[in-house]
Amino acid sequence: MGGGHPQQDAAAAAKLGFTGIKIDGCGPALNMTLWTAELRRAGTGKPRVLIEDCLDKDFWWREMTPPTPTRELLHTCPAHFYRITRDVAPDFYSVFFNINFMVNKLAQFYDDPKAAPRPGCWSYPDMLEVGVEPLTLVESKTHFAAWCVMSSPLILGFDLTNETTYREVYPIVANKGALAVSAAWAGNSGRLLKNSTETFVHVTPVGAHDSVPAGAPNQTFATWQIFAKPMAEDHRRWAVLLVNLGVAARDIPLTFLDVSPALGRDPIASDVWTGERVTVAPGSHTFERVAAHDSVFLFL
């Protein structure tokens, strides 16, 4: 039930000296355990970079049982990172559909340190759409922050030969604060901390599209969401992302003890992007009039 040609491809990879391999589990290459065994048999061991591009995704669609149960696959983790979602599109709601799909799909595994996303076994909600039209610059910034705070691999998707786009998005994708959030590991890859109680429905391109296709399905979203990732093992330092998913400006409240009791009631806050100090009220703080699709990215 493996599909593809793992024995031949593994032998070719060893002969050609490849150090990185992407296995596209959306096609016929459905058995990652078999692929890993063939790579080792061919003498490549586990390549320095081994990507599995679907994590049993075709089995979910086909309502089939994968050859290796998902929890076992995550425990053994034959790939260094694995796709967990449908393809992403350059659309704000596609981006957050994928992040929320990842959160929901992995919810049962987050408390299992042997199955949760971790160094050497990252979950991947697809490549970045930063700088890809029609995504706006504000949306690109929020998108990049979400990938960073959830420890998602950062694979650029825009045309690097386009100097105009490159100059526009370089301050986002090369920001030292955001990249520090992405690289941090303190035993937790990042979590959805809180949803607003208010929700709304929005047409969403699920899967790869250049624009919202006719007949695209409606999806339900929280009006705002808060994500958090520890930056230190004692949980006294955190990265927190507040996102306005709605179509109008919103106030977003943040209670510091919701992030971690270790923060206390009066943490020192700074802006991830600029490093500048952010004045916050003790106990909780409401960030007022956050623009549609914009975000607040903090170190606490």
UniProtKB/TrEMBL annotation:
InterPro entries assigned: Aldolase_TIM (IPR013785), GH (IPR017853), Glyco_hydro_27 (IPR002241), Glyco_hydro_b (IPR013780)
Listed EC numbers: 3.2.1.22
Catalytic activity: Hydrolysis of terminal, non-reducing alpha-D-galactose residues in alpha-D-galactosides, including galactose oligosaccharides, galactomannans and galactolipids
Keyword Hydrolase: yes
MF annotations from Gene Ontology: alpha-galactosidase activity
Gene Ontology BP term (one): carbohydrate metabolic process
Keyword vocabulary terms for this entry: Disulfide bond, Glycosidase, Hydrolase
Family per similarity comment: Belongs to the glycosyl hydrolase 27 family.
Protein name: Alpha-galactosidase
Species this protein is from: Calcidiscus leptoporus
Lineage: Eukaryota, Haptista, Haptophyta, Prymnesiophyceae, Coccolithales
